[in-house]
Design goal:
mainly alpha; Growth Hormone, Chain: A; two-stranded parallel sheet; 18 helices; globular; disordered C terminus
């Protein structure tokens, strides 16, 4: 006689809510800091008389610096714990904000500050792994989506920073931004608990992920979903100000709709991926991204038309981010922080290059169209790569369409891929 099936545990009862919510807050405030230079770009560029290429570089430096630091911070968190790594990171951010407030008065200073503030972008893998670490596989997508919704911090930057800059000066905004970071540090210390899913491994084991085929498929897809999101988020204030003549204090209102759509749909994307499968959902979403990017490449004359196009594209990217991180912790179960940090790093690097591409395209072709077209091309490449590996994935470590394998499905076999294969992958 078969043993009775256990009743599924509800999401709220299956993990540690205090850790999830404080991880969300930590990521949210860090994300706001990460794009603060972009929100300040119209003010800084007017005062320092920057060219389009210099504007793009100013916005790209924090994104690229944060991207490069994601994997090292993820590795560090495996050794000292994600909670300690988060607190260390936020301490460095406070130093960077203080430097921007008191000492920056040149383009070189802005770039130096951008490197320090880029540390905020490294929060990604640590925040998602910390927030979701207490949750079982069947709820990973939703937990990752909630923690990852911290990218809504970009809304805080684009909505509040420009009016504050107009009233108090753009340097003062960096000083004021110290307050939410300190709040996040205090709440994380009080309410977060280090998850039990961290397993000690050698550095060689962690570095093996750098040559793992599956990791690089995730990297490629995330270059589209997150790289497109953070790159365009960074550039939107400049796009609406320079292309459409929107006042510096009002550009946030035009950008906010797209950012909110991406943040909200990230949670929905994780939830949907748990139910219909991350592979299946990503395929549909990448088609939408291609269509939206191609439409934006025409650079419509009406700013509201561009807003509508960006909302559709950002919604698909946000849901895609949630779907990617429904899959990552299932593929790399005991080293989610490292895997998440690598995927986040490569995705953010692509996002860091996008503002540069937009600026160079405008300077040399007179249009922002080439930058949007590059997003469409990358989305096609990512979709093709995902379709290429989907059969091998669903015959090994994941169920049909990218859902968690049911207990009745046969155990997968090792197909020779490198990395942390988790309990479901056994040798034949």
């Amino acid at each position: 006689m078969a043993p009775p099936r256990e009743k599924p545990v509800s999401f709220l009862r299956s993990g540690h809510l205090g850790t999830l919510l404080t991880a969300l807050l930590y990521f949210d405030f860090c994300f706001a800091i990460w794009v603060l230079n972009a929100a300040m770009a119209p003010f800084i560029s007017d005062e320092l008389h920057l060219s389009p290429t210099q504007k793009g570089l100013m916005m790209a430096v924090p994104v690229i610096a944060g991207a490069l630091l994601r994997f090292p911070l993820g590795l560090l968190s495996q050794y000292i714990g994600r909670k300690r790594a988060a607190q260390l990171e936020m301490s460095v951010i406070v130093v960077g904000l203080t430097f921007g407030w008191l000492f920056v008065d040149s383009f070189a200073g802005v770039l130096a500050m951008g490197v320090l503030l880029g540390v905020a972008g490294a929060s990604f893998g640590v925040a998602l792994s910390l927030g979701s670490g207490w949750y079982p596989p069947e709820h990973k997508g939703l937990a990752m989506g909630i923690a990852g919704a911290g990218n809504s911090g970009a809304v805080l930057a684009v909505l509040f920073a420009p009016p504050l800059a107009a009233a108090w000066g753009w340097r003062s905004v960096y000083g004021l931004a110290v307050i939410p970071i300190v709040v996040a540090m205090v709440l994380l210390q009080i309410f977060a608990k280090e998850p039990p899913d961290r397993e000690p491994k050698s550095m060689r084991d962690y570095l093996a992920i750098l040559v793992d085929r599956d990791a690089w498929i995730f990297n490629l897809v995330y270059m589209v979903t997150f790289g497109g999101y953070i790159g365009l988020t960074s550039f939107m204030p400049t796009l609406f100000h320079d292309q459409y003549g929107i006042a510096k204090t009002e550009v946030g209102a035009y950008a906010a709709g797209a950012i909110v759509a991406a943040s909200a749909l990230r949670v929905v994307g994780g939830w949907l991926a748990d139910r219909v499968g991350g592979i299946r959902l990503l395929t549909v979403l990448l088609v939408i991204v291609v269509a939206a990017a191609a439409a934006a490449a025409t650079v419509p004359s009406n700013p509201l038309t561009m807003v509508a196009i960006l909302i559709v594209g950002f919604a698909a990217m946000g849901a895609g981010n949630g779907a990617v991180f429904q899959l990552v912790p299932l593929r790399f179960r005991a080293m989610t922080a490292v895997a998440s940090s690598l995927v986040g790093q490569i995705g953010a690097l692509a996002g860091g290059l996008l503002p540069v591409a937009m600026g160079v395209g405008q300077q040399y072709s007179g249009s922002y169209g080439p930058g949007f077209a590059a997003v469409a091309v990358l989305a096609i490449i990512g979709m093709t790569a995902l379709m290429t590996v989907s059969r091998s994935w669903t015959s090994t470590w994941i169920g049909a369409g990218g859902r968690v394998k049911a207990a009745t499905e046969p155990a997968a076999v090792d197909d020779g891929m490198v990395g942390d294969l988790g309990p479901e992958r056994t040798s034949p």
